[in-house]
Design a protein that fits this description.
Strands 2-3-1-5-4-9-10-11 form an 8-stranded mixed sheet. It folds into 3 domains: about 45 residues; about 150 residues, Alpha-Beta Plaits (2-Layer Sandwich), CATH 3.30.70; about 70 residues, 2-Layer Sandwich (Double Stranded RNA Binding Domain). The chain is built from 7 helices and 11 strands. By secondary structure, it is of the alpha+beta class.
Amino acid sequence: MSTDMRTKEEKEMRLKEIEAAMSGTDFWNDKEKAQSLIAEMQELKDSIEGVSKYDRLGTIVSFVAGAGGDDAEDFAAMLFRMYAKYAENRGWTITILHKNENDHGGIRNLTAEIIAKNAYGTLKHESGVHRLVRLSPFNAKSQRHTSFALVEVVPKIDKRGDVEIRDEDVKVEFARSSGPGGQNVNKRETAVRIVHLPTNIAVHAESERTQERNRDKAMEVLEGRLIRKQEDDRARELAGLSISKTMQIEWGNQIRSYVLHPYKMVKDHRTDVEVRDAERVLENGAIEPFLEAEKDLP
């Protein structure tokens, strides 16, 4: 029986049965069965505690520049560096799957993969619009400027198949993999772009050497995004909210603000957590106060 179909009491009863079996002297005689029971025990514990079955996976994080021109694209690059530094501090492995840069080193969009246990569960509430307020380095008068960027966090699927993706529902395109500034680093069309037609979700992958491997990676990212969409839609339905259309990356939708002028502060608008050392947050990836407070978010 799937654990999702059991009542809490049935799950707790089954958990006690497994724990009793584990205390037996012959538990490890059948290693395959023992490992299966341990996996079931962890799944039961997660289900009872309200933890997603996906929380313990790695994650795919995307960054998209929004309103704000060059400043927004620079902000998207700042956010990528912030999360990359956080990942580095934790010993996580991060790999860029796709990057579209401008001539200033800013990011129009970028997708990165983080391979680490619990990475998705740790970062999943970072999804949303982020806002930056500062004196613009791209303005000759150095005027105060507000820009926006979107961060999207989805689970990195270890084994595909949780979401049905029909061949007729996807459009696959191939292109040459490109480096910074759009320079071709590969004469073969190994980069892959996949569009999921029913949802209009588009994903890219170009980190692998072959078309086939990039296609597999792109499909993995697509499945993760579809799973995240299902989770978000279900959460909104349970809260009695309508299913939202594509979020605009602009004023009014931000989950967090990074203010560098006239004062310095990072504030999360959902949890009201404030950190005065804005440079430490952005440059050193010191986002732990926000992640800790997010544990109480639905």
